């Protein structure tokens, strides 16, 4: 697909017997996922209008257009849902979509390349950038704080890191 898209949620499985799904939202405001539709699968092969139901553990009970049975809902388990980038809200100057950070070069304050951002993780205590690159035997988790990452330059495709001592070899 030529249109830029961002993953905004995933289907965790069926909910009930009438075709509802358990939908996990990745949006800062979880209910906003229903307003970005139609949402599409990663390959763009299917599109769904989303109607949120009640909150359930780990997300929402939701109806997806065209999904009318428990079996159809079960078949979608693990499917990630994407919204067109143009439908997402603009962010403040110091905020970033995770999708924008993945792939950025990570350089230290002296200009030495440390690696590239492979993923962004949020385990509840703040975002961590998973960095992998030359000279690293395994990935490094760099806290995504203003202290550790003082500069993010999306236009240049890099971020400048000031990691804690000993984090990178």
Strand elements, count: 13
In CATH, the topology of the largest domain is named: Elongation Factor Tu (Ef-tu), domain 3
Structural category is: mainly beta
Order of helices and strands: EEEEEEHEHEEEEEE
Helix content: under 10%
CATH superfamily of the largest domain, called what?
RimM
In the sheet with the most strands, the strands line up as 11-10-9-8-13-12
Tell me the number of structural domains.
2
Annotation field: number of helices:
2
What's the Cα radius of gyration?
A: 19 Å
Q: Alpha-carbon distance between the termini? A: 39 Å
Mean pLDDT: 91
Strand content: 35-45%
Shape: elongated
Low-confidence stretches are none
Top CATH class of the largest domain: Mainly Beta
What profile does the largest beta sheet have? 6 strands, mixed
The CATH architecture of the largest domain can be named as: Beta Barrel
Describe the structure.
The protein is 6% helix and 41% strand. The longest helix is centred in the middle third of the chain and has 6 residues, at 70-75. The chain contains two helices and 13 strands, in the order E-E-E-E-E-E-H-E-H-E-E-E-E-E-E. Strand 12 (151-153) and strand 13 form a beta hairpin. A six-stranded mixed beta sheet has the order 11-10-9-8-13-12. The chain has 169 residues and is mainly beta. It has two domains: 5-87, Beta Barrel (Elongation Factor Tu (Ef-tu), domain 3), CATH 2.40.30.60; 98-161, Roll (SH3 type barrels), CATH 2.30.30.
């Amino acid at each position: 697909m030529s249109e830029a898209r961002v993953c905004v949620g995933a289907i965790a499985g069926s909910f009930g017997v009438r075709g509802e799904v358990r939908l996990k939202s990745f949006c800062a405001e979880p209910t906003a996922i229903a307003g970005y539709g139609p949402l599409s699968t990663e390959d763009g092969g299917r599109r769904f209008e989303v109607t949120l139901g009640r909150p359930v553990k780990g997300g929402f009970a939701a109806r997806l257009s065209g999904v009318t049975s428990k079996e159809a809902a079960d078949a979608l388990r693990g499917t990630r849902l994407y919204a067109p980038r143009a439908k997402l809200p603009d962010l403040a100057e110091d905020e970033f979509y995770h999708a924008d950070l993945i792939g950025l070069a990570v350089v230290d304050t002296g200009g030495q390349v440390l690696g590239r951002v492979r993923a962004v993780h949020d385990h509840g205590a703040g975002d961590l950038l998973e960095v992998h690159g030359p000279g690293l035997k395994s990935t490094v988790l760099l806290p995504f704080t203003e202290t550790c990452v003082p500069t993010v330059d999306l236009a240049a495709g890099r971020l400048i890191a000031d990691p804690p001592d000993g984090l990178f070899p």
